[in-house]
Every structure is written in C-alpha cells, then in structure tokens.
Amino acid sequence: MTTYVALLYSIVLGPGRRLVMSDLRDMATDLGLENPRTLVATGNLVFEAEGKTVSALERKLEAAFAPKFGKHVDIIVRDAAAWLKLVAANPFPAESELHADQVGVRVMREPVTSEVIERLRPYAADEKLTSVDGDIWLYFSRNMASSRLLGALTPKRAGGVGTSRNWNTVRRLGDMVAS
After folding, report:
1. For the purposes of burial, counting CB atoms within 10 Å of the CB of 81, is it exposed (0-12), middle (13-18) or buried (19 or more)?
2. Residue 101, CB-side half-sphere exposure with 13 Å CA sphere
3. Which of 1, 31, 63, 155 is the most buried (most CB within 10 A)?
4. Which one-letter DSSP state was computed for residue 17?
C-alpha cells in the first residue's frame, strides 16, 4: 500500500455550506481508499491505496466529489515520498521557525516554469517567492490579508491548477505520512 496526501482546492460548497471532514472520509472509504483521515477542517486527506497513479487518484476523487457534494473541486494528490520531498525542500527554513503561518506553498498539479515565477514577482512587495520542484513557495513578511501576491495566485497567473497550504499544515501532513 502507498500512502497519499490529497489537497482540496476549496471546501466551501456554496453560501453557508462547508464540507464536513467526516463526509470527505466517507467518500474516500466509498471509493475503496484505505484508512482515510483528515487534518484540520481545511480539505486535507491522507489515505492508502494500491496500484493507482497520482493522476488516476485525482480524477477518481474529483469525479466522486462533484455528484456527492454538488460542486467540482480541484484535488491535488501526492504520494508520501513526494510529500516528504516537498517538506524537506522548504526554501524558507529560518522564516518557518519564526513565522510558520507566514510560509506557504502552492502545490501545483503540473510543475510551474520560471516564467510563471517572473510573472508573479511584480505582485510580491516585501514578500519572498520561489519555485522548488515545480511548486510555488512564498514567505509573507507582512499582513497576508493585504498581500497582492496572494490575490495573484489564480490558476491563470500561477500557471495552472494548484492549492496553497501554510507551513504548519505542510509539516503536519508530513508527520502523518511519515508515521
């Protein structure tokens, strides 16, 4: 069995409706995924499966999600080895120690190019921005709520489908897949 991390782009299903994590775990069980568990109520699912590719799991999860919850949601999947590599690749370790909630990564379905990073740079005022192994790493050195960079991370500007998580979540998911 291989352990996987699945990240949902959004858990908001409509006005006043949010996805309940127990329902997400139930959906995973119904799909035959083993030992589904979630981390906080923000659309982070860890599970085991055998003989599946990442892209097949993404398609399977997305196809099941829409009819069950009434909305399409992009879902990014990484196997445990790829997730642990992402955790180890954090380009902002000092900042993560001091301000873990201000360091984040936009996990991309397809790797971004250096052109995408250059296109995003004008939106980074006093923030740091880089790409590692095709994912976009960010350090928000000021109030995230007023960040132009955060607002610029649309699929069009960011080079495709992706979803962002802060360092606390990334690290805790790493702990879950490592154990």
Report:
1. exposed
2. 4
3. 31
4. E
Cβ atoms 163, 106 nearer than 8 A? yes
Q: How far apart are CA 74 and CA 43, in angstroms?
A: 11
- Tens of pLDDT along the chain (179 residues) come to 999 999 999 776 667 677 889 999 999 999 999 999 999 878 899 999 998 899 999 999 999 999 998 889 999 999 999 999 999 999 999 999 999 989 999 999 999 999 999 999 999 988 999 999 999 999 987 665 667 888 888 888 888 999 999 999 999 999 999 98
Q: Report the Cα–Cα distance between both ends of the chain, in Å, rounded.
A: 14
153 residue type, one letter: L
pTM greater than 0.90 (yes/no)? yes
How many CB atoms are closer than 10 A to CB 15?
A: 5
Token pair recorded at residue 53: 């590719």
Closest CA to 86 of 134, 124, 120: 134
Nearest Cα to Cα of residue 42 among 169, 177, 174: 169
